[in-house]
């Protein structure tokens, strides 16, 4: 260990410092020790009594203070007196007609009065640092307090490339242009292209965000500074900000390069939410980060990448143009992705001929890349315990039980039954998106659990970005939201709690139509909405008040219910009519876990779409 080596010379240094201090103390005291001190009154008295044999005034030119050495005519002793203003003393002596000599601070004394205190101070500081350093173990905390803790990797240590990142095809394609820019920035600057300064990787833990960032650096062959958001958050105000400054200064010296801030949510949390008092330190750090990101120009060759699994709590300022304006979602892998990840991590682990990675991929729905890597590792440990040099399917099965139970807490292991329910649920949404005229089309449907706790998602691709939401469209939004639950009802004859978010959203939309947008004839054009779109804890909670009576409240609730009921009937009708598509979509989802727009639309081929 490094510590052991250090201790030897360290102890000698320690002894030298102590000896130095002692020697210094003796040295300063030596001169004064055989001289006696005078007060100014005594001095005046001696002079006025004419008992002076000899006076020497010692003064350093730059300062008014000095020292008077006096020999009395009536004894042999040396007397000294420190004075604050030499000129005053000189004048007094002249008035009394006493001869005196002025000398500059003599060599030895000068050392004692000027250099020595500095030396002592330096030694003291060194000693302090030395002790702190030892207490911090091998750490360098005391020395590098405000220094960035970023670790720099240049291309020399083992490189991560895109080949090491399995699956994540679309994500890699998006990052490809960043790699290209870092490799040949001229090409882009020539044609005036603006390359994003910041790329935010968003996704659940263990899905390969850190790995992707490293791969970008590896592919481009540029230095890579990595630091974790929590490294910025220190006990002392200002340290984080100074670390940020330092990090960017280092990066500028090494451009083109990548700065990677892992777990950025630790610093970039929404400011001023007032939770738990002021978080001065974090806010300062975040402000500094924003300043630095605004400070370097476009195409300066620094790309700031960062990763988080909590994009919802980030300060919106961080997502503004010129900062992290590129967002890349890194999701949990689908069946195919899982198989590829298993293949990557099976390298270096000889597999027996009974191992079927495809089958493992199918049973590990909900596993992240890190979970899969862990799975194979555990399997390898089982194999080694059995003194085998290859893995069997059975090792993996045993490992699955072990990590599956552990993984249940962090990610979600999905049972076949849950998977089936989710598939029909999402298919219900998807069919409605497709059939209803003003929503959709469906961009992708997935039953891979997301980091935010949803069992799956159906993502529409809004084609036109309209300024106004119409009543018709809002009704269709509600209809789509109810589709998941309806599909569950139709297929399973029972319902789950999985639709709570949908129901919440449908209700919220219906309520806004009634209380905010005047879309209900019965209620009319009156705003009954208290405008608390975003209730932050600690800010607006106290204001959430109702400003209307019971009767109106009852009418509002009734209208909301009417809207939701009408939409429910409409949704049920459509899903029953296109039952074949619901079925086909669910089956395809069970097989592939994630389907694209093309695959989904193919299900409707040759079918005429109409609501009734
Ligand atoms: P994150 O930063 O998203 O939490 P990491 O990038 O740290 O996740 O991934 C942890 C580990 O999981 C990686 O070191 C790698 O071994 C494995 N892993 C995750 N995703 C992938 C992937 N797509 N391909 C290969 N390995 C992966
Ligand atoms: Mg990470
Ligand atoms: Zn749903």
Structure description:
The protein is of the alpha/beta class and 612 residues long. It is built from 20 helices and 14 strands. The chain has a six-stranded mixed beta sheet, sandwiched between helices. A hairpin with a 5-residue loop joins strand 3 (66-72) and strand 4. Helix 5 runs parallel beside helix 7 and helix 11 (335-346) crosses helix 12 (357-363). The termini are far apart. The model is unreliable at 1-8, 137-143 and 532-543 (pLDDT under 50). Zinc ion (ZN) binds next to helix 15.
Brief descriptors of the model:
single chain; alpha/beta; 6-stranded mixed sheet; 5-stranded mixed sheet; 14 strands; disordered N terminus; binds adenosine-5'-diphosphate; binds zinc ion
Low-confidence stretches: 1-8, 137-143, 532-543
Count of separate DSSP helical elements: 20
Average pLDDT for all residues: 80
Apparent shape: elongated
The strand count comes to 14
Short description:
The chain is an alpha/beta fold.
Task: Itemize the secondary structure elements and their pairings.
Blueprint: H1 2-33, E1 35-37, H2 40-48, E2 52-59, E3 66-72, E4 78-83, H3 86-95, E5 101-104, H4 107-135, E6 151-153, H5 169-183, H6 185-190, E7 198-202, H7 209-220, E8 224-228, H8 229-232, H9 239-253, E9 257-262, H10 280-295, E10 302-308, E11 326-329, H11 335-346, H12 357-363, H13 369-385, H14 393-410, H15 416-435, E12 442-446, E13 457-460, H16 471-492, H17 500-515, H18 550-577, H19 579-592, E14 594-596, H20 597-602
Parallel strand pairs: 1-4, 2-5, 7-10, 7-11, 8-9, 9-10
Antiparallel strand pairs: 2-3, 3-4, 6-8, 12-13, 12-14
């Amino acid at each position: 260990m490094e510590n052991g080596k250090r201790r030897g010379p360290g102890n000698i240094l320690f002894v030298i410092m102590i000896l130095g201090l002692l020697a210094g103390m003796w040295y300063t005291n030596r001169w004064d020790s055989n001289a006696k001190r005078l007060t100014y009154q005594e001095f005046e008295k001696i002079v006025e009594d004419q008992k002076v044999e000899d006076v020497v005034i010692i003064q350093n030119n730059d300062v008014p203070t000095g020292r008077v050495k006096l020999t009395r005519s009536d004894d042999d002793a040396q007397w000294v007196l420190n004075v604050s203003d030499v000129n005053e003393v000189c004048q007094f002596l002249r008035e009394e007609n006493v001869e005196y000599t002025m000398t500059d601070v003599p060599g030895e004394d000068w050392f004692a009065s000027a250099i020595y205190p500095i030396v002592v101070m330096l030694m003291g500081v060194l000693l302090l640092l030395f002790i702190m350093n030892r207490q911090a173990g091998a750490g360098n905390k005391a020395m590098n307090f405000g220094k960035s803790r970023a670790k720099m990797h240049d291309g020399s240590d083992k490189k991560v490339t895109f080949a090491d990142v399995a699956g994540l095809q679309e994500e890699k394609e998006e990052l490809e242009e960043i790699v290209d820019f870092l490799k040949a920035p001229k090409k882009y600057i020539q044609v005036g292209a603006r390359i994003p300064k910041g790329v935010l990787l968003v996704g659940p833990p263990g899905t390969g965000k850190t790995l992707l960032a490293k791969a970008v650096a590896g592919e481009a062959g540029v230095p890579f500074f990595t630091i974790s958001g929590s490294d910025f958050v220190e006990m002392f105000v200002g340290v984080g900000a100074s670390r940020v400054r330092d990090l960017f200064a280092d990066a500028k010296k090494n451009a083109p390069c990548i700065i990677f801030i892992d777990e950025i949510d630790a610093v970039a949390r929404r400011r001023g939410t007032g939770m738990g008092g002021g978080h001065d330190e974090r806010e300062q750090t975040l402000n500094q980060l924003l300043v630095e990101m605004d400070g370097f120009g476009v195409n300066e060759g620094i790309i700031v990448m960062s990763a988080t699994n909590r994009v919802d709590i980030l300060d919106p300022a961080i997502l503004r143009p010129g900062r992290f304006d590129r967002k890349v979602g890194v999701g949990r892998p689908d069946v195919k992705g899982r198989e590829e990840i298993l293949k990557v991590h099976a390298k270096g682990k000889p597999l027996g001929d009974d191992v079927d990675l495809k089958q493992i991929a199918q049973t590990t729905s909900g596993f992240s890349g890190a979970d899969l890597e862990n799975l194979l590792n555990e399997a390898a440990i089982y194999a080694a315990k059995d003194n085998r040099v290859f893995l069997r399917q059975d090792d993996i099965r045993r490992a699955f039980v072990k990590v599956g139970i552990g993984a249940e807490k962090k990610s979600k292991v999905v049972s076949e039954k849950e998977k089936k329910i989710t598939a029909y649920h999402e298919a219900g949404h998807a069919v409605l998106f497709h059939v209803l005229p003003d929503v959709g089309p469906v961009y992708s449907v997935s039953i891979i659990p997301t980091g935010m706790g949803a069992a799956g998602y159906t993502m529409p691709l809004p084609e036109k970005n309209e300024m106004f939401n119409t009543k018709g469209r809002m009704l269709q939004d509600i209809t789509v939201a109810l589709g998941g639950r309806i599909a569950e009802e139709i297929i399973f004859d029972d319902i789950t709690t999985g639709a709570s978010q949908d129901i919440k959203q449908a209700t919220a939309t219906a309520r806004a139509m009634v209380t905010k947008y005047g879309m209900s004839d019965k209620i009319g054009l009156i705003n009954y909405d208290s405008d608390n779109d975003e209730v932050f804890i600690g800010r607006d909670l106290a204001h959430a008040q109702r400003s209307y009576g019971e009767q109106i409240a009852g009418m509002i609730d009734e209208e909301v219910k009417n809207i939701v009921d009408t939409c429910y009937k409409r949704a049920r009708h459509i899903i029953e009519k296109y039952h074949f598509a619901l079925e086909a979509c669910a089956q395809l989802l069970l097989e592939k876990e994630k389907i694209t727009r093309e695959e989904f639309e193919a299900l409707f081929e040759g079918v005429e779409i109409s609501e009734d």
